Amino acid sequence: MEKTAVLLFAAMHLWPTAVGGEAEVRGLKPVPIRFVPLLDIKEKEYEAGFEVTETDLPFVVALDFRGRKGNWFCAGAILGHCWVVTVASCTKHASHVAISYGAFQRDKSLFTLHVTSKAIHNSPKNKEFKHDLALIRTNYVKFSDRIRAVSLPSQKIRLPYIDEWTYSAGWGRHHVALMNTNQLRLLQVEVKSNHFCRKSGFGQIIMDSMMCTALAEGDNSCLLDSGSPLVLRDLQVIVGVASFASQLDCRQNRLLVYTRLTEYIQWIRSLIRDDV
């Protein structure tokens, strides 16, 4: 993607008016994005979204966690010189996290910061998939063309963006996949009403603090991660972080649920106000 405008123009020709088949699905079970299965192990390769350049998404960071349950990978976004946002389903069992900045290619990040669980602030209401949000405090990070913060949305807008096309980004880390997931990719995501996700199989687990979304026709969630940011089309404002999908194969065009940041603006600002 050489320029955002070019990507947006090309994407317009791919956006569907509806997600085929989703309204017929029943009995979806919430599964963290990082655990969404790749069911057919005979077909271990997958493709989705757009490649990006080193300066297209300077707010996206790679998060390598370590804890009593082993090692795991998630994504996050920079909110300020000392803060990163991700999901609590990534952080709550962690004792340590390595944060890689400028990592549009996973093996070529500009630098990595290491923090312990003492730097992690989970949403005080978090329980399983409810209020799935966490902030990580870091040492001061200097911004550049490859590292900068993304803006928060307005607190005044409570349930925005329905039927709007947004973008989400990630690397994808599926342990059964042979495909190299070193390259950060950008995917188109349409925000749907929460009622859409409820009637499509998730039922009453969907709360106002969540955002129901659907991938563009032909895309898949295999190259997204838990904590992948959801941003508006100008790539300047973050409105959600990837929380869960379903038990269905990641290569199928399935619903994704993000934590809705407008529900947590006051809590976020209370933590980061002195460090942005």
UniProtKB/TrEMBL annotation:
Catalytic activities: Preferential cleavage: Arg-|-Xaa, Lys-|-Xaa
SUPFAM superfamilies the UniProt entry points to: Trypsin-like serine proteases (SSF50494)
Keywords: Digestion, Disulfide bond, Hydrolase, Protease, Serine protease, Signal, Zymogen
First and last residue of the signal peptide: 1-20
GO molecular function, one term: serine-type endopeptidase activity
Presence of the UniProt keyword Signal in the record: yes
InterPro entries with a match to the protein in the record: Peptidase_S1 (IPR050430), Peptidase_S1_PA (IPR009003), Peptidase_S1_PA_chymotrypsin (IPR043504), Peptidase_S1A (IPR001314), Trypsin_dom (IPR001254)
Domain Peptidase S1: 18-273
Family the UniProt entry places it in: Belongs to the peptidase S1 family.
PANTHER family, sorted: GH13245P2-RELATED, POLYSERASE-RELATED
Protein name: trypsin
The organism of origin for this protein: Drosophila madeirensis
